[in-house]
Amino acid sequence: MQRLARQFVLQAAAVFLAFSIAWPFYALRVAEWNGAAVALLAGGSAFLLARYAREPWWWQAIHLCFSPLVWLGLQLPISPLWHLLAFFLLFLIFRGALSEQVPLYLSGARILAPLAALLPERARVLDIGAGIGSLLLPLSRMRPDLHLSGIDNAPLPWLIGRLRVPGSGITWRWGNFRGHSLDGYQAVYCFLSPAPMQALWEKACREMTPGSLFISKAFPIPGRMPDMLAGRGEDTIDTLYVYRIPHRVAVSIRVFAPVSG
Ligand SMILES: C[S@@+](CC[C@H](N)C(=O)[O-])C[C@H]1O[C@@H](n2cnc3c(N)ncnc32)[C@H](O)[C@@H]1O
Fold it and tell me: Domain coordinates of the chain in residue numbers?
């Protein structure tokens, strides 16, 4: 969320900068504002600020295009209600992008076989951020012995998944994965983004039984060597990073009182 707030601040600063330049410029010429030029100026400023702040390249690209696209959208000869509707629809689908920086995109069929091969017999498996069930449904057909569950908190994907799973044996849950206990799962699968990985790993280590599997597609846990790589090669969108939950180390400190006399 902190990172997202940073992007809002960058955009706001760029728009403020563009208006601060445009206002005296057009006022002194007593001329009409050129909306396209101001939007381009705001986009360019946002891009430079994002570069200066060392944001990842894709944030820089979003900053560059944001103001010009907003301006273009406002030129469309349609009722403003359509903009509201589009916003509402995007929110229903991509809610996860707001809270966790995890939008909806699908795992794809290529990792199904390598994933199925990793999962122990009759294991309880959870897909964290299960989307529309596009991973769990084919997995349930490939490995009918597994007990599969999925959880998601984006309304539309969750609803589509809910309508698709009956008859598959998949348990379909609504909610934020941060509030869902991982206790009792022998394997947890996720395809999210770099943003929540560290916190998720710490949660898995607290709640899962040592020796259970934590499998992340495409996004490794920062600073931790995976126990195994599966899927397609290293560092690709189809790499499965496989971690075993480590044993908890119990540390006991004994304090000896000095023996008097
Ligand atoms: C990249 S998609 C993966 C979909 C599916 N697991 C697959 O592999 O095809 C990530 C999903 O995580 C969901 N998500 C993001 N943040 C979440 C959260 N805090 N709790 C539950 N689901 C979340 C998003 O709504 C999205 O559907």
Answer: 2-77, 109-244
